[in-house]
Amino acid sequence: MKKTILLLTLLTILYLLGFSLAFSYLFEAVTPGKFLDLVRNFIEYSIMFVSLIIFCSVMLKNKFTSVITYVFLVLATLNFGLSIGAALIYKSDVNIGMILSIMDTNINEAVSMSTMFILPSVIALIMLALSIYCAITIKNTIRLNWKTAVISSLWILMPFIFFMKHKYISNKGGGKMIKNVFYLSNYIDQSLQIRKESEEISAVQPSFDVQKVDEGVQNIVLIIGESARKQNFSLYGYPKKTTPYEDAEKKNMLLFENAVSPAGITNLSVPLVLSTVEPGEFQTHFNKISDNIINLSNHIGYKTSWISMQGAARGITSIANMATYKKWLNGYDEVSISHLKEIFNPKSKNLIVIHLNGSHPNPCDRIPPEEKSDKLNYYDQSIQYTDKLLGQVFKFSKKNNTVVIYFSDHGVKIKGNKFLHTDSKESTQVPFFIWYSDDIADKYREIGTVNQVTQTTKIFPLISRFMGLKEPEKYKDERLKYLKLDLSVIPYSELKE
Prior knowledge:
The protein is of the alpha/beta class. It is 43% helix and 13% strand. It has 15 helices and 12 strands. The strands form 3 sheets. The chain has an 8-stranded mixed sheet with strand order 4-3-5-1-6-9-2-10, sandwiched between helices. The chain has a two-stranded antiparallel sheet with strand order 7-8. The longest helix is centred in the N-terminal third of the chain and has 28 residues, at 32-59.
């Protein structure tokens, strides 16, 4: 019995090691409250894993159900192996972008990387062998009674309980199974759905009826903020100094004083901004997002890169997947700026999109501990942190013939201590500006302030112009149509305050 317990303990430690490597960001800036959450997670996942092993042991008692044991243990091993592989090969947590990259790997790429898979594969096979041995050992000693039935069912019952809690008691976001013993299954499921969606969208070939009229600028950097209210930017007159780096560069900007988002949440707003799909087509002709700024840039010869700090999202990930280079990162937003500097190629024409976490609720989680202070509330500090990163981009791009476009996907409505994503004018008023490096030609440089109400869907024709293309005479930003959360469309003027 002692030998069995020791073996099961060793297996559980290995399982938790895989979990820890897959989600190493959980260990960043651990506060007392987060530490308790971490301990609770370890306990819950340990219980589910032990329950799975015991379930497999019970299934081994019958030759007809024994095959179920091997199927589940192989799945658990693949789950573990992917975590180990990500850590050893990619030096990264597991995320949807990484899984999508694996799915898109062709045979030649796999062969060229084959030696890198040896160590993770050996570790995974050891895990599988130990799991099978442990299940067989327990099978020979375990008794079939109601206690065994309860324990062996926990790995099925607990995810259901987590789901019900998530749906009816405490919704913290996430998927249909917040936790289950195969902890990467949600990522894999989402990746499969996104891959299918991407294939459907890619199958729609836009005509690209564009006219090249100039050589275009060398580098276009598009930075997508998250849940940032222009009302909290000192750049827009907020009394607290939240955007000192942007304030200092205002002389090199075209500032849109009354910019508004086309929708109140990321999944609706960003596809509308980056593609030609109309708000009224979102339900009926969603695949029209194939006519997007990444696809267009590829078509005319710009090297496209997408750096994301966010997880997968319908439409957005499909657009990102069209980039020549794409990378999904974990951690604080500053790692995206470091990555920008690493991949920047001054010899090619570049369109680089950076999708930040920005001020996404809860904003206190978006700020590194060393950046936190008592001088501002957490929301304002998240704005200030993004400003610091923009300052780094300005400094890096100063002599690189670069246009930097920054906008927020949407704002938020503040009600007490809550940050709400609502259909309201307050939550759609966003920061939006264009910054020019010193060596941008005068024909592209327009400095000053635009006072009229401007929808951020204007970004598509703006980027087209910076790539040397003729701008469309009429575009959807002029119509100021707003896509509500229920997917109905109204004039922006009818949106409540």
